[in-house]
Amino acid sequence: MKIARFSHNDTIRYGILDGTDLVVLAGDPMFAGFDTSGERVPLSDAALLAPVIPRSKVVCVGRNYRDHAAELGNDVPKQPLLFFKPNTSVIGPGDSIVRPPQTQDTQWEGELAVVIGRIAKNVKAEDALDYVFGYTIANDVTARDLQKPDGQWARAKGFDTFCPLGPAIETDFDYTKGEVITRLNGEVKQQAPFSDMIFDIPFLLEYASAAFTLLPGDVLLTGTPAGVGPFQAGDTVEVEIPGLGVLRNTARDALTA
Ligand code: MG
After folding, report:
1. Cα 68 to ligand 1 centroid, rounded to whole Å
2. Which residues have a beta carbon within 5 Å of ligand 1, which is an ion?
3. N or C: which end of the chain has fewer CB within 10 A?
């Protein structure tokens, strides 16, 4: 089942994707379940939004694919390298990625995103998937030229618009058989199976939840494979995960005074 968050007639609601329609839900399915309102809205009349606004945090994993660590000259970490993106960096499908004036090198990172559905603290890997609400697609946009000089990654990873999410949350998805494909203006730049991850999702949830409580609506980005690179204003970045859809965003430069 694919859950979308959408705007229609100036109202934000949730719906289940059903062909060319959205079956409108009575409330936020993470808290209110899947009761429907009895309405249907044609997809063509709705604007899809980020399917979730992370309630407290986006937890990210750096260097979780061997080839990507190598392409930037880094060793593979011995344990997961965690960082955060603020929830203010989240945008939805079709929204513009804004390139701020502080960077000359914005890059894409196509990633599988895990949406947390239950309060998770000290979960064990074997139970971890019980805490997952569903899966969606993320672009971990990065100001590569700020990442090393800053030392900490908060700014390079955390600018407004640097976390496109969507287009919907799939509640039934076997990520172990999945792959991610990233295209720049239609040309494939990244393609790798999730089986290439160094640390798998259950282990990442155990590791992260041992450090901090994960709340319903928090999101875990699972790392990007090799093939990252720069995009410019006017470029369109598409991240596709078969079974989850395509997350498409076009970049523009920030308006300057
Ligand atoms: Mg990343």
Report:
1. 10
2. 109, 140, 224
3. C
Give the model's pLDDT for residue 75. 87
- Model confidence pLDDT, tens digit, residues 105-139: 999 999 999 999 999 999 999 999 999 999 999 99
Residue 201's CB is within 10 A of a number of other CB atoms, namely: 21
Helix (H) or strand (E) holding 149: helix 144-150
Q: Phi/psi zone of residue 157: left (φ > 0), alpha (ψ -120 to 50 degrees), beta? A: alpha
185 in the Ramachandran plot: left (φ > 0), alpha (ψ -120 to 50) or beta?
Answer: left
- Measured distance CA(62)–CA(81) in Å, rounded: 5
Beta-bridge mates of residue 248: 238
Structural contact between residues 130 and 118, judged by C-beta atoms closer than 8 angstroms: yes
Cβ count near 8 (within 10 Å): 16
Span from the CA of 13 to the centroid of ligand 1 (angstroms): 29
